[in-house]
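pasting for ref. prot 1 ->
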Amino acid sequence: MSRNVAQKLLAEHSVDLSTPAGQEIALPIDQTLTQDATGTLVMLELEAMELDRLRTELSVQYVDHNIVQNDSRNAEDHAFLQSAAKRFGLWYSRPGNGISHVVHMQRFGKPGRSLLGSDSHTCAAGALGMLAIGAGGTDVAAAMAGRPFHVPMPRIWGIRLEGRLPPFVSAKDAILELLRRHGVAGGLGFILEYHGPGLDSLSTMDRHVVANMGAELGATTSVFPSDGEVRRYLETQRRENDWTEIIADEGASYDREEVLDLSTLEPMIACPSSPGNVVKVQEVAGRPISQAYIGSSANPGYRDFAVAAFMLRDSRVRTSVSFDINPTSRQLLYALATDGRLGELIVAGARLHQAGCNGCIGMGQAPARGTISLRTTPRNFPGRSGTLDDQVYLCSPETAAASARRGQITDPRELNVDIPTDIRTESDMIDSELIEPPVEPEVARTTELVKGPNISKLPELEPLPEELTLVVALTLGDDVSTDEILPAGSDVLPLRSNIPAISEYVFSEVDSGYVSRAMERRARGGHVIVAGENYGQGSSREHAALAPRYLGLRMVIAKSFARIHRQNLVNFGVVPLNFVDPQDYERLSKGVTLRIPGLCAAVSSRDAVEADLRGDSRPLELSLHLSERQRRILIAGSFFGHLTNC
């Protein structure tokens, strides 16, 4: 039987390809990736699991999110992560070495391997022909302990690429076009597989751009073939022996098919405040900007910076614009400095920041209120930049550089500049000085975890009761992101290892009274949250499930859920329910009381749940679609309660 790339990767990892779509599969994991915003909980979870040494082929702990050290807390968490890497047998990428996704591509990614990361953009490694999936930290900790990753069997969506990108149009415009077509939940339940003759014109780092932002489509992951271009990339990284060819068989088919003609694309831009709010740059051209920001996990390659340098050569950015250059790895920074591109950017007016996620996650570089910030980042959810009422637009490096030069949103095709057609896509300079390898097992066993005063134990979570009476504490609309559930940024992220403290910020930018209402209800059974479509999109950080659970959240009723957040809710004993009739959403306003009799029995064996509403004689019909494994976790009250019972 002819197989596509995704099917080959699944079959190579013992997945029965006849499994119906949506049914849970158990995927063996070869590699894991954690970063400091999520990795602190992962390491505490490994300690709780009493893991002696990780069971994966390779695991890496990166420090890339919380590298702004305004006080001692981040530095102390870095010391904890470094000690945990030694204790459990991980590689450790130190602060300043770069963003996890690009460094993993450079140093560790291998075609054909499975990669699970506690970061939603782990899917970027699909550019190498990997089966790379983002997940919550609990699932990653379980994988590090040798357990398979459980995920609904995806369908495969083949996207045939034709033609070549025109001048001043890049890979970012290609993925923005797909977001324009399908929105932020259009890929839910799918692996996106790119194929066709248009692949020949896309470098591995171009493919990284596209695969990275597959997360914004809600896809399980994205995959590209491991072809001659991937081999060329690995040769630049001195890792040609890691290359394996993985291409689709002739005649391979897909569950869904689409054509994207690269030659017809124009510069695109995502307007505030969603990656799916995409229009042509020409439609918003002329709007004044205050910031142009280049560099993130979505545009991490050498070319993304070099093309901006060429566009700004012999010119200056407008004095009204903060031109922020965010190097994505130490290795990239070294290359840009050596070949003169960095100097050209600085002469043009660039502000240089350390290699890491930085402003993308709200750690510095926040824009002024009421002004437009153009960013080559993957997300523009409300307030994610660090400014509550921000106006962040997502675009390509070409558009960001052109707009910085003019001081307003500009179609880069309008500039009379020459960009070389042979810009290197990636430098062959290698720098791994800030990566520490695992220590020997005998050293690991004697390593003590270094815990600063800000690191607290994981909270104990009680099992699911037979009956719950809950009050609706909050009602929300569609596409609520985990950034809105629990903000990131320099005030909140340093509390990532202290659940009681970070819980005080839950929904702080949505409803300032939520925490007090939740705490008032916590001792009296807890509360429920009601939401629309695609609840929990965005970041994989499980704090957005655990912190509300700590405040007494026992149930979320939504029209639909984002994949990662739904599993995070289950892992911490929060029951995710769907409306049978979406119109019933209107019946659940804030303050309504629900009584759910026989809840534990329903979770154990049924897909239907009925709730009684106080003052309403008509029962509320809800659905509960869970695997047997998820049912056991919910009844135990958490993944760790389930482990104790096993």
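and prot 2 ->
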Amino acid sequence: MIERCVLALAVSFFLVACEQEEESASATAPPVASTPSSVEQVLPAREVIDAAVDEYTRTFINQQSALATSLGLSEEEYGAYNQRLPDYSPKGMQTLREDMRAAAEKLAALADPSLSEEAQRHLQVNEVLARYYAGLEGFSAGYVDTWGGHLPYVLNQFVGPLIDLPNILQDQHDVLDAQDAESYVARLTAFSQVADQVRTKVQVDADAGVILPKPLFPNTLGYLSSFAEPDPADHPLITSFADKLAGVKSLEPRQREAYVDQAVQAVRDQIYPAIAAAADTLTRLEDQAPENVGIWAQPGGEQYYEHAITYLADSSLTADEIHQLGLDEVARIGKRMDEILRANGYTEGSVGERMQQLNEEPRFLYADSGEGRAELLEFLRGEIETIEERAPDFFSTLPPQDVEVRRIPVAAEAGSSGGYYIAPSLDGSRPGVFFINLKDMKAVPEFGMKTLTYHEAVPGHHFQLALNQLQTDIGIMRQNAPFNGFVEGWALYSELLAFEMGMYEDDPFGDLGRLQAEIY
């Protein structure tokens, strides 16, 4: 790409020189017919931009094979990625970040005020995305996540390769034929290698002084323990694989059994030992871990926080300004919650204490049983149907992709949030999914479930991300752009929009759940 840019500059200087010579000669020489020249072969500016964006996109996708699976990209176009997983070793993460930084510089060099507004936007957005994935220069700890960008701890209780990759394998790696099955088994072996890479990265980061805060150790170690607790044959990585194989009619029963046996062996002999080694490394580091949970307590943490404000919050505000904004909003929202609580007979104690009181009342709780969990899932699906019926009155365009509600797998519950959304594949063959954590039924009271649904599914993440994927003219990086301030900003706005759509009418406790989510 640099060669093309240099060529374009050389051609421009050549044209200027030619024009000057032609002007001086025009007075004495008769006009002549123009003839084709090699100059006409120079790519137009937009084609140069598109070529640069395509180059960096392919570089990124080549190193993010799991994302390629999530998006359902064509292996004919992007290479055979379904047998591989990303490289989370210190060297692998360094390579990705260097490649993205180099791509950002190449894109920045193409900026020109003479470009059309759309071309400038396309170039700028892709440059910002490249810098997002390059992370903070000088802060080597952590890893680059395809959604969260540069995150400081590669092993934690919430996100990371050891949590995210199993979910992708279970929910998004399609098994439609023998090749897919072989790829899945190969990826199980690759996952054991990822666990070794993560363990190494944790130690290297610790040697540099960056260690997971001590209060986060129990849940992180709890996740690793629960992940390796089931009998290998009963692990979700195996049971989900067996379910997929059952639908492959081209395979004989003995072939399906053979693939399952290979997968069980990989989990038992490779994955479980690698997970145990990672847990041992983390356990040895616990005594050295900082008690303070703020990133400021880590070496380079202040600069990292400023970087996060820029690239995660999409903001130019200072940390102090954002903190003050938060205090002001808590006061505003808390006042409204107090008004609703008092109007419904809850007058004693702080707003937080009264909300905790609601959380203990049986009328708001689903039974801690299979039946109670099934009832909650049906309620969520019903809310999606109801708001989808009203949506045409508020939206001119609705996503054609389906959205489903599923329970977070039991093995992953300890390390997962209350709920999250996964976008559909680019071709729409796989639906968007709203996953909900049903480990603790007291954590999912009925009065908070409407808001969670509107945020994670409709009209929240599903509407925005599914519709964004349909913009096939902006390129894969922008179709999957993880601009957190806008993505979470839209989902938060969707909670208020649902209120304006009448979804909380005659439901003051549901509105309290909405305000509780907003104050969070």
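The radius of gyration is 27 Å.
Residues 1-41 have pLDDT under 50 and may be disordered.
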